[in-house]
Structure formats: structure tokens, C-alpha cells
Amino acid sequence: MRILRPQVRPGRPPHPAVRRAAPAAVLVAALLATAGCGSGGEPARPATAATASPPAAGPAAGGASPPAVPAAQGPVTVPDTLRFTAQTLDGTAFSAADLAGRPVVLWFWAPWCATCASQAWTVAEIAPRYRDTVPIIGVAGLGEQRAMKEFVTEFDLAGVPQLDDRAGTLWRRFEIVEQSTFVIIDRDGKVSHQGFLDGEDLTRRVTALAG
């Protein structure tokens, strides 16, 4: 095979256009090299959303931010009216301080009291409904424990905490002089009512406190 080679005439200078093109090519190469170099030696990159935004405050990067947590509430102050302990008719320890921050109804009754018996049905009906919002607590006194337990069974009051106050400690503390007496304590620990309530009045007051 015959290979054709370009013929170059010795002693003839390059064409003027070639002489002009060479410096231009060198200049372009220099500009490209300069554009491709930064202060750190790498080409500049456009900022993305991740790099342009400041890092979010919180735990180490890479994990999702935790949901906002409401500010912790301070401890509930126990008012003087609820600073007492007792024992229920079934022998369970009871602390009134656990009720702080909610309205509370104390029902002072005796097992032989006809008026207490007439109110017992209403208490048995509404107390479970408002157990978490307006607790109703029975305070049994002026009788024998056996008679108190029979009263609770007869009127379906097993779902209502019943304190055994045969010694009269709580009756004297709240200055109860007759039965049946309801003592209503508001959210701030103040007594808003002390005295008699029929079934309709009791339901109305408890419903209002729960709302």
C-alpha cells in the first residue's frame, strides 16, 4: 500500500494565518485552565437546597427532626382542702392530693340515712361518667362498717370511691353537721358549695364543672 505524505517545502515560512492562530490557541487554553481552578483546586459548584440552607438546630444531622414538644407543665399545687389521706371501705389507701387540679365532690353520707339513700341512685349514675373530670368521692360515717358496705352494694356504688370515716376525722375536718352533705371543691381548691343537693341540682353542677 502506498502511503501519501504531505509535502513540505524546506525553508518556506508558515502561512501568516497559522502564525496568528497559535498564540490565540495558547490564550484560550490559559483561560480555560484559569476558569477551571478555584481557591481550593476544584471547580465551583452551584449551591443546592441542602448546602444553601443553614443546618437545622437539633440532634446530629442525618436524622429527621423530632416533633415539637410542648413546654413541660409545672407540678400541680395541692390545696389545703385536699391535703388528707384515708382508707376506702375495701381497705385501699387513698390520697386526696391525687385529685389536685380538678373539681372534686365529697359526699358525706350515713348508711341509715333515708335522704342519703334517695341521692345514692343519682351518685351511682353520674359518678362513673365524670370519674376523670369531676371525681365524686363518698365519705361514709356515723355507722358500722358492715352497714356501710351493705349500703354500697344495695345502691350499686361499687364504682364510686367510698372512704371509711367511722372515726369522723373528715367529718370534723370539713365541719359536717348533718347528712347528706355535698362539699364541692373547685379546681383551685376552694369550697364553692357545702350543703344539701338533690339529684337534679347535683347533676347540673357536676355537668357544669366538667364542661
TrEMBL record:
Residue numbers spanned by region Disordered: 40-74
SUPFAM superfamilies, A to Z: Thioredoxin-like
Sequence intervals crossing the membrane: none
UniProt entry tagged with the keyword Nucleotidyltransferase: no
Domain Thioredoxin: start-end pairs: 47-211
Signal peptide span: 1-35
Sample GO molecular function, one term: oxidoreductase activity
Name of the molecule in the record: Redoxin
Native species: Micromonospora deserti
